[in-house]
């Protein structure tokens, strides 16, 4: 798979293959469907507010004492027969994983969709060492075969429609293994069946599996993976060697704490009472060799920021993406990292530092409407972190940048302007400049500048 | 071994500690309180009815039965399934006329693909979420067994059903490999249309017994 190459070359590349209208249509459908489902199942849970407070507090407890919990987790995993590795950055994590795969003598691995391994671009690192990594999540398969980038945490191939998927399967599957049937139809059932047959052979012959994890329980050493398709179960159970790459913020202190997150995550994420499959395992299980790679890669710098630290509570549910008016228009690719949407806007600049125009523009990719904060199951105050990051951009920027940021701020977040715009959006929508100035132009060149919503989020939410 | 794991371990732990300089020295993990005002248990509709409702919602097939052996035979007949793989500890009373092969010694994974289905028990079921949890006990077998065959027939006893997620976790042993199943495998990756059965069993059938 291609690496994220940052701005502005990435949006240029993506705009060739993805028509904006299609992407926007699909995104709109996706975000609105999931959003409605989520609202229904959250309403069903009478103690949602209390669960949310507990979830936020459990994560805060973890973060405030992360050293203690990391050591505890290491001890528990080791006691259960697993091996723990520590990776300070992406390069080290890739070295460790590549070394572990090579030690097995295998040149192919099956992978469960994992943001941590995307973040470190593990597939490219493996490829450089002659190891082919097969993505097994249906959407990831579509993305991998189509040689492009995921556009949503939860539905990474949402920018592709069924006809495109059929084309990709027909033209690319053969090169990766079992070809698609020649008479392949483009209905979702037929496409899913083609993927099932294509990947089954792979699962049954794979001897190394690579995963991430949703949670790691410090007390017991248990790792948890939530999924829908069963590709996770395949990768986690069938291979002889399992390697899990897990960010150090994924820890929860105790077994009992899972009772909170196993309620918060599925309902926030796919809008289901429970996702179809969850696997939990502790150390070396059912004869497997197990390696846990604990990944820092910038997380400790996020931890050091007292305001920004809360971003590490994130359980990657994607609820904030689905309510974000900017995300709905810009699409996941615009954020230039594996973490799109509001969470990406605060996580990417913090993980990578204010490394360039993209990172500096991300804190401005928001109307500050607050919808992301309202839906976040662990109550991350995304607008607060955005404002804090903006002030950092402005203070450290050059004079010209400062001006540009000032201009952008007038466009995107002047409370008065926005209030007027939201209340009389019909007329004022057309006032929005088509192109942002200075460093932001990279962000706006390939897409329309987000228009203020017709109805303010809070009005919409109240009348929902 | 690649790199020097001790070095990075120490480096990461040191970075974590210096990042947390704002946390008061004397604060221990337990001193930071977690409010637990959420409901660990609830009252409501009969748990069996609730479980049935939620399982059906997930497109699982559900029957409340008295005689397991008969019900198994009927289920297999409806489906035209003949050859079944079963975990070592499934009691003979569950087995009607069908041909079963016990997973003892473990069948090669490739062979599992050739079975018409698998019959197991469960450890716990959560009514509110329609979830069945397997813990690799004698009636449930290893994880691959309920994954590779296309059809999973699962026996749930009434006393194994709890209402809420917290009640379920309390009953489970974290050291065992656990699989939580809520309906058949599913994907919504293609234009958000839900399709049942991508890699896991495409059909989940549940027999609820007294
Ligand atoms: S920030 Fe909150 S809402 Fe967004 S993905 Fe993370 S947990 Fe979910």
TrEMBL record, chain A:
Matching PROSITE patterns: 4FE4S_FER_1
BP GO annotations: lactate metabolic process
Domain LUD: residue ranges: 70-285
Signal peptide (from-to): none
Annotated Gene3D superfamilies: Alpha-helical ferredoxin, NagB/RpiA/CoA transferase-like
GO molecular function: 4 iron, 4 sulfur cluster binding; metal ion binding
UniProt keyword terms in alphabetical order: 4Fe-4S, Electron transport, Iron, Iron-sulfur, Metal-binding, Repeat, Transport
InterPro entries: 4Fe4S_Fe-S-bd, 4Fe4S_Fe_S_CS, FTHF_cligase-like_sf, Helical_ferredxn, LUD_dom, LutB/LldF, LutB_C, NagB/RpiA_transferase-like
Domain 4Fe-4S ferredoxin-type positions: 311-380
Keyword Transport: yes
Residues covered by the Lactate utilization protein B C-terminal domain: 397-464
Protein name, as recorded: L-lactate dehydrogenase complex protein LldF
Organism: Actinoallomurus bryophytorum
Automatic annotation (TrEMBL), chain B:
Record InterPro entries: FTHF_cligase-like_sf, LUD_dom, NagB/RpiA_transferase-like
Domain LUD: 116-208
Signal peptide span: none
Pfam families: LUD_dom
Protein name, entry field: L-lactate dehydrogenase complex protein LldG
Organism name: Actinoallomurus bryophytorum
Top-level taxonomy: Bacteria, Bacillati, Actinomycetota, Actinomycetes, Streptosporangiales
């Amino acid at each position: 798979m291609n690496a994220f190459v940052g701005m502005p070359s990435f949006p240029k590349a993506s705009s060739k293959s993805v028509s904006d209208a299609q992407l926007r249509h699909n995104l709109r459908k996706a975000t609105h469907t999931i959003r409605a489902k989520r609202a229904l199942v959250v309403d069903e849970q009478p103690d949602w507010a209390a669960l949310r407070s507990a979830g936020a507090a459990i994560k805060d407890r973890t973060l405030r004492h992360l050293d203690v919990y990391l050591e505890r987790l290491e001890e528990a995993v080791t006691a259960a027969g697993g091996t723990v590795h520590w990776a300070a950055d992406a390069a080290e994590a890739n070295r460790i994983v590549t070394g572990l795969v090579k030690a097995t003598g295998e040149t192919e691995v099956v992978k469960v969709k994992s943001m941590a391994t995307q973040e470190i671009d593990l597939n490219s690192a493996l490829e450089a060492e002659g190891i082919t990594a097969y993505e097994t999540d249906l959407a990831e398969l579509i993305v991998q075969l189509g040689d492009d980038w995921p556009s949503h945490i939860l539905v990474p191939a949402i920018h592709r429609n069924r006809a495109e998927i059929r084309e990709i399967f027909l033209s690319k599957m053969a090169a990766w293994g079992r070809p698609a049937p020649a008479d392949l139809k483009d209905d979702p059932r037929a496409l899913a069946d083609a993927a099932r047959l294509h990947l089954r052979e792979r699962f049954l012959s794979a001897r190394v599996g690579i995963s991430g994890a949703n949670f790691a329980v410090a007390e017991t050493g248990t790792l948890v993976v939530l999924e829908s398709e069963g590709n996770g179960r395949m990768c986690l159970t069938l291979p002889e060697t399992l390697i899990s790459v897990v960010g150090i913020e994924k820890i929860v202190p105790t077994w009992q704490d899972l009772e909170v997150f196993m309620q918060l995550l599925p309902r926030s994420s796919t809008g289901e009472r429970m996702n179809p499959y969850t696997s939990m395992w502790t150390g070396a299980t059912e004869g497997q060799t197990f390696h846990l790679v604990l990944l820092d890669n910038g997380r400790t710098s996020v931890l050091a920021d007292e305001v920004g630290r809360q971003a590490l509570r994130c359980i990657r549910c994607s609820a904030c993406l689905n309510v974000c008016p900017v995300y709905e228009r810009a699409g996941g690719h615009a954020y230039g990292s594996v973490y799109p949407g509001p969470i990406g806007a605060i996580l990417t600049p913090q993980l990578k530092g204010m490394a360039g125009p993209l990172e500096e523009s991300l804190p401005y990719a928001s109307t500050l409407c607050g919808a992301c904060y309202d839906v976040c199951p662990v109550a991350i105050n995304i607008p607060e972190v955005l404002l804090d990051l903006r002030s950092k951009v402005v203070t450290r920027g050059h004079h010209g940048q400062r001006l540009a940021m000032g201009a952008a701020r007038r466009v995107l977040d002047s409370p008065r302007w926005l209030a007027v715009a939201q209340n009389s959006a019909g007329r004022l929508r057309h006032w929005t400049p088509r192109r942002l100035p200075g460093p932001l132009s990279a962000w706006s060149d390939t897409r329309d500048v987000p228009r203020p919503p017709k109805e303010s989020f809070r009005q919409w939410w109240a009348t929902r | 071994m690649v790199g020097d794991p001790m070095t990075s371990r120490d480096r990461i732990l040191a970075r974590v500690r210096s990042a947390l300089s704002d946390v008061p020295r004397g604060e221990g993990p337990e001193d930071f309180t977690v409010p637990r005002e959420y409901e660990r248990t609830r009252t409501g509709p009969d748990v069996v009815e609730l479980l049935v409702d939620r399982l059906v919602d997930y497109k699982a097939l559900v029957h409340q039965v008295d005689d397991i052996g008969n019900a198994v035979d009927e289920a297999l007949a409806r489906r035209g399934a003949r050859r079944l793989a079963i975990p070592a500890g499934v009691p003979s009373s569950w087995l009607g006329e069908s041909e079963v092969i016990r997973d003892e010694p473990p069948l090669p994974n490739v062979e599992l693909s050739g079975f018409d289905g698998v019959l197991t028990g469960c450890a716990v079921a959560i009514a509110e979420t329609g979830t069945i949890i397997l813990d690799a006990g004698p009636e449930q077998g290893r994880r691959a067994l309920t994954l590779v065959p296309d059809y999973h027939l699962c026996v749930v006893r009434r006393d194994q059903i709890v209402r809420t997620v917290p009640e379920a976790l309390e009953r489970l042993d974290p050291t065992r490999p656990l699989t939580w199943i809520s309906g058949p495998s599913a994907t919504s990756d293609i234009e958000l249309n839900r399709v049942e059965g991508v890699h896991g069993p495409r059909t989940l059938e549940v027999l609820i017994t007294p």
